[in-house]
């Protein structure tokens, strides 16, 4: 290298170091460690491997082993670093889901399910997958799920997400990642170890987390008007806040929410996990909006009693597929509640138009609703959206199910519109087709404003060796050229189509934790403060006196979530990772079965008779534990 080039190289290195605040820390007299860097810097991953960080959008990573809770990382130049507050209604959420990681779904991780598709009872949801895996000891038993946790999403994915211009991730998480009851076949607690990794990786790359409770005891959406859904753990019937075991399952869910809220509200984690989605896609049209309102008010109070007003995560509730205007005024004055919606074209009326034509649909269909809700309710996110404009995709409608596009979905008879093989042949998509998909993505993003694509990654089929639901994989779209390299390119798409109804903001102070937050309108309190609600819906008709239904008692041992185990370079450094419990005054016990009371199967209580009186319990037999009174859940044939 010539002297001139050497000086120029040194100058570039100096300015790179200055602009990105690269610091060198001495962990020992003989080693220096880089703790931050931007585009082109070398990353040391927690696996021990190295990779070159690619971020053309002004982001920089930060990780100091002696200061692991530092919030200096910045995902992109347009995203506040973690040590600065997010301005809701001003800063833009460019988000993506990490679906199928901790809460598996057949179409996201088809290889897991294909292994048992020909079993006596095929794997069609995580319940049946877990039962099949547990019996498959030759291949690792239920621990196969931990291998999935460890490999499906890694630190490299978080680095790529930041480099793709995305600044939030929504992470679906199941209740069994905290604790389960006897008889439930899920892998208990192990997902938490990997969620802690997610927090660390998100911190390193300046990404914020929306933690979404995706599956709850009894299921909030197992079946909807004859259609079976697999993403709450078990297909079949809804038993959460519905039917004979509805209250008991809701009590268990409140425990899960409380335990998670205690952990993520600790100062070591609250700058990363900044939003908490309470229940994913509850079928409110079946449950009843007034009934779930009682649950939301209970959960809200549990969380805010832990955090205090203005602190802790933003609370997100799903619209339950009701018109969003029906939530106007709900818990008005509450401290930071966001409304979540999941708009999908593929589950609406289908047509044979290509992606360029589909790109004309999102702005008029969604834009005005988002803006009106931001104005009339408060913060709104689109927690899920995709590029699916047909329902083609391996297992997209469920294992063994057909599609409406081909007229083969048995629960939804329809005429054939086309061939899925043509739609899914992504290795042979033309440049024009990919350009149409990118325009579709930009129109959707612009219409939805603060949104999370579903999902970051679709795993390969073990049969074909490739992704079989390409319209749902952000990562594949980046690699193959149909997702934008900079998500900000979406801005102005709706206006260019003649659809322009922007939210002029800002959000009101109380809606973002400022002045007035926590002072809920008295009429809303009077509507929703009763718990349990006086009545419940059920498949056999309303249960008008919910006071007679089975409940649990708060006398059990409570699970607390452990912090990560941290290793420091410096022997003089001290790190407080927290103890998993933000509020030491919160000493209530966990819900557990009442001794002497018998309970129907909490996952299959649709046919159970409504009691004539509440069970208050009796003396337990010698050596009998209260949880022994729960009937063992059994695997059943697919409904």
Write the SSE topology.
Elements: H1 3-19, E1 24-28, E2 31-34, E3 36-37, E4 42-44, E5 50-52, E6 61-62, E7 94-97, H2 110-114, H3 126-135, H4 144-152, H5 155-163, E8 168-174, H6 190-205, E9 208-215, E10 223-224, E11 227-228, H7 246-264, E12 273-277, H8 284-287, H9 289-307, E13 314-318, E14 337-341, H10 355-358, H11 362-376, E15 380-385, H12 420-423, H13 431-448, E16 451-453, H14 474-480, H15 493-496, H16 522-528, E17 553-556, E18 590-592
Helix pairs in contact: 5-6, 7-9, 11-13
Shape: globular
Strand percentage lies at 5-15%
Query: Could you report the average pLDDT, rounded to the nearest whole number?
Result: 92
| Rg over C-alpha atoms, rounded to the nearest angstrom | 25 Å
Strand order of the largest sheet: 7-8-9-12-13-14-15-16
What is the end-to-end distance? Answer: 72 Å
Largest sheet: 8 strands, parallel, barrel
- Low-confidence region ranges: 1-30, 619-639
Count up the helices: 16
Strand segment tally: 18
Question: Helicity, in percent?
Answer: 25-40%
**Structural class category:** alpha/beta
List keywords for this structure.
about 650 residues, 18 strands, about 25% helix, disordered N terminus
Q: How does this model look, in words?
A:
Belongs to the glycosyl hydrolase 5 (cellulase A) family. It catalyses: Successive hydrolysis of beta-D-glucose units from the non-reducing ends of (1->3)-beta-D-glucans, releasing alpha-glucose. Residues 138-308 form the Glycoside hydrolase family domain. With 639 residues, the chain is α/β, with parallel strands linked by helices. The chain is 26% helix and 11% strand. It has 16 helices and 18 strands. The strands form 6 sheets. It has an 8-stranded parallel beta barrel with strand order 7-8-9-12-13-14-15-16, surrounded by 4 helices. The protein has a two-stranded antiparallel sheet with strand order 1-2. Strands 3-6 form a two-stranded antiparallel ribbon. The longest helix is centred in the middle third of the chain and has 19 residues, at 246-264. The radius of gyration is 25 Å and the shape is globular. Mean pLDDT is 92; it is low at 1-30 and 619-639.
């Amino acid at each position: 290298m010539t002297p001139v080039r050497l000086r120029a190289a040194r100058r570039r290195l100096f300015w790179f170091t200055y602009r990105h605040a690269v610091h060198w820390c001495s962990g020992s007299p003989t080693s220096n460690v880089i703790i931050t860097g931007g585009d082109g810097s070398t990353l040391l991953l927690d696996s021990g491997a190295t990779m070159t960080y690619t971020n053309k959008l002004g982001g920089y990573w930060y990780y100091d082993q002696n200061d692991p809770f530092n919030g200096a990382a910045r995902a992109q130049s347009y995203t506040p670093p973690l040590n600065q507050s997010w301005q809701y209604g001003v800063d833009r959420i460019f988000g993506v889901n990490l679906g199928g990681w901790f809460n598996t779904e057949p179409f996201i991780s088809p290889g897991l399910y294909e292994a048992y598709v020909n079993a006596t009872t095929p794997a069609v949801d995580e319940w049946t997958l877990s039962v099949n895996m547990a019996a498959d000891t030759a291949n690792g038993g239920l621990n196969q799920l931990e291998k999935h946790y460890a490999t499906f999403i890694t630190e490299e994915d978080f680095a790529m997400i930041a480099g793709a211009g995305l600044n939030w991730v929504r992470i679906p998480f199941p209740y069994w990642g905290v604790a389960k009851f006897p008889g439930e076949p899920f892998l208990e607690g192990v997902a938490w170890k990997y969620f802690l990794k997610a927090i660390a990786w998100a911190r390193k790359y300046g990404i914020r987390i929306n933690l979404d409770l995706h599956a709850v005891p009894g299921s909030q959406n197992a079946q909807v008007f004859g259609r079976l859904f697999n993403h709450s753990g078990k297909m079949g019937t809804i038993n959460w806040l519905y039917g004979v075991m509805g209250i008991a399952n809701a009590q268990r869910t409140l425990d899960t929410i409380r335990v998670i809220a205690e952990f993520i509200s600790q100062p070591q984690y609250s700058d990363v996990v900044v939003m908490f989605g309470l229940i994913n896609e509850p079928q409110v049209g079946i449950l009843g909006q007034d009934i779930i309102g009682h649950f939301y008010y209970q959960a809200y109070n549990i969380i805010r009693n832990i955090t205090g007003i203005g602190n802790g995560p933003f609370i997100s509730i799903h619209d339950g597929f009701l018109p969003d205007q029906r939530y106007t005024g709900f818990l008005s004055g509450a401290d930071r509640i966001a409304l979540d919606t999941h708009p999908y074209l593929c589950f609406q009326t289908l047509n044979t138009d290509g992606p360029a034509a589909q790109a004309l649909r999102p702005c008029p269909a969604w834009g005005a609703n988002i803006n009106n809700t931001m104005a009339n309710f408060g913060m709104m996110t689109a927690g899920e959206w995709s590029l699916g404009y047909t329902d083609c995709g391996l297992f997209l409608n469920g294992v063994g199910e057909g599609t409406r596009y081909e007229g083969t979905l048995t629960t939804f008879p329809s005429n054939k519109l086309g061939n899925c093989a043509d739609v899914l042949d992504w290795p042979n998509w033309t440049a024009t087709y990919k350009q149409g998909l990118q325009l579709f993505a930009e129109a959707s993003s612009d219409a939805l404003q603060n949104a999370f694509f579903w999902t970051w990654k679709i795993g390969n089929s073990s049969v074909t060796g490739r992704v079989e639901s390409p319209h749902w994989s952000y990562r594949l779209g980046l690699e193959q050229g149909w997702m934008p390299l900079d998500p900000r390119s979406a801005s102005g798409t709706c206006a260019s189509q003649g659809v322009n109804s922007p939210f002029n903001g800002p959000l009101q102070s109380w809606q973002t934790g400022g002045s007035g937050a926590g002072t809920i309108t008295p009429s809303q309190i009077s509507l929703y403060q009763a718990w349990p609600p006086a009545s419940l819906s059920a498949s056999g008709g309303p249960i008008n006196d919910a006071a007679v239904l089975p409940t649990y008692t708060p006398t059990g041992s409570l699970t607390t979530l452990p912090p990560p185990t941290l290793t420091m370079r410096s022997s003089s450094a001290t790190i407080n990772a927290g103890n998993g419990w933000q509020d030491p005054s919160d000493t209530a016990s966990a819900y557990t079965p009442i001794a002497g009371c018998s309970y129907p199967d909490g996952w299959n209580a649709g046919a159970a008779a409504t009691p004539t009186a509440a069970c208050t319990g009796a003396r337990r037999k010698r050596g009998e534990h209260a949880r022994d009174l729960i009937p063992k859940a059994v695997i059943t044939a697919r409904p």
